[in-house]
Amino acid sequence: xxxxxxxxxxxxxxxxxxxxxxxxxxxxxxxxxxxxxxxxxxxxxxxxxxxxxxxxxxxxxxxxxxxxxxxxxxxxxxxxxxxxxxxxxxxxxxxxxxxxxxxxxxxxxxxxxxxxxxxxxxxxxxxxxxxxxxxxxxxxxxxxxxxxxxxxxxxxxxxxxxxxxxxxxxxxxxxxxxxxxxxxxxxxxxxxxxxxxxxxxxx
Length: 203
Hints:
Elements: H1 2-15, H2 21-29, E1 46-56, E2 61-71, E3 78-84, E4 110-116, E5 119-120, E6 126-129, E7 132-140, E8 145-155, E9 165-168, E10 171-173, E11 180-181, E12 184-185, E13 189-190
Antiparallel strand pairs: 1-2, 2-8, 3-7, 3-11, 4-5, 4-8, 6-7, 9-10, 12-13
């Protein structure tokens, strides 16, 4: 009798679990399902990268040109793109949950040129806050794609070794070295969570 009662209580609790509104919305749109499988209308956007990178060990400078083709498979018309700039963990004014040596603090990524589709982006079209950059774009309709080109540079850290920097004399570890387009999904839209140095990424 006691076991039957316990199973009954457990079953009633499992039926009354709170479902966050964003998850419930995905269930309603049929992009997700309660059993954890993708829904019939599930989708994922995609970004294809062509990277040309140069590292100067004497200047400790990483320079690159990232050419990205972003495919909008969502049902939404996108009016902006969000990028993750992990290298800005070392920027002087960046929020961090890790300690960085004073000599490793720098001015962060410098964008020499950015093309959003056929439009050259000036500083009024994009905003950088720590490790997150958002850029206004011409509306990108469902099923369409956009080409983005970013010419940039940033100084490599020397001592504070969080996933990147000098390992020993003559040995360098260069990772997360290009602007990456953030995830846009059916749950929360754009992923605007900054990289603070102590966690993994949503890719």
